[in-house]
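Sharing a chain and its predicted structure for anyone who wants a worked example. Both blocks are below, sequence first, tokens second.
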Amino acid sequence: MNSNMEAKIKKSEQLARIIGHPVHILMLENKAIAGAVSDARRDIEGGRNIKESVGSLSVIKPHIAKIGDNIYPLLDFKYKVTGPSEVLWSEDIAIRDTIGFIETRTEANGFLARIDEMLKKEKLSLFPMCAQLFSEEEWIGIYREFKHYRPCLIGEYPVWDEGEKHVQADTYDDAEVVLPTGKFTLRELQAVLAALPVELTFIDADNINSYFNEGDKLFNRPMMALERDVFSCHPPKSREVVRSILDDFRTGRQDSVEMWSEKSGVPILLRYIAVRDKLGKYLGMIECVQDMSVARDYFI
């Protein structure tokens, strides 16, 4: 191991000893996941149903989501370190999406080995790289974002005292926003948008994430994603799909695109809608994510 890599690992180990620091949290989860993989491997060897044994590892999804939403985009789009997002992010997603489809001993052995490899790369490569590159301010931002994700196999998140100093209460501005059909104060407008039963994200004409509404989310949107281009929020294999939709909206070939999906058994309708002014000038795109469980349950 070269001296540069040793220095990165040493820095990562130092951060991992700071209670509640994001590296501390991720390393705790990394260790807990390794234990869960060992348990699943032992259960399979003991004759337990393979699909159920591997399916129990769905609890690792919040860990994968935290890294995918907060770590890879920062490395890729700010620090231009593209390798992790090109390789590790894609592998993490493949692991996440494969969990419910393992049925044979051979598949299970290969799958558990992939998770072992994921954890090894996090500990010895990814976290040390981030420890060397990320600023204290960026770690504080990541710490704030982690509060929007479920802990992974570690109980409640430990508190990072330094991070807590920067967790600010909501602030409101009561200036008025006057529209052709009425008006709001900013406080009212913020509350109305947060109360809507739909997740809204506005991407401006330059493909920059400009706004998302508050409230509980099916898909977490880190505050750090604001003012970054929309492609930074998507793993490599889906970026071309997003780029194609935006190009179609910009050129007028399409005005909207609908997609159906499912997350943890929840049916989801995703709508992508071109936003234009009264003269037809393209201003951006609004993404709408809607939980359709109520409609499904009603009609069933």
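Comments welcome. The beta strands are 176-179, 182-185, 199-204, 209-212, 256-263, 266-276, 282-291.
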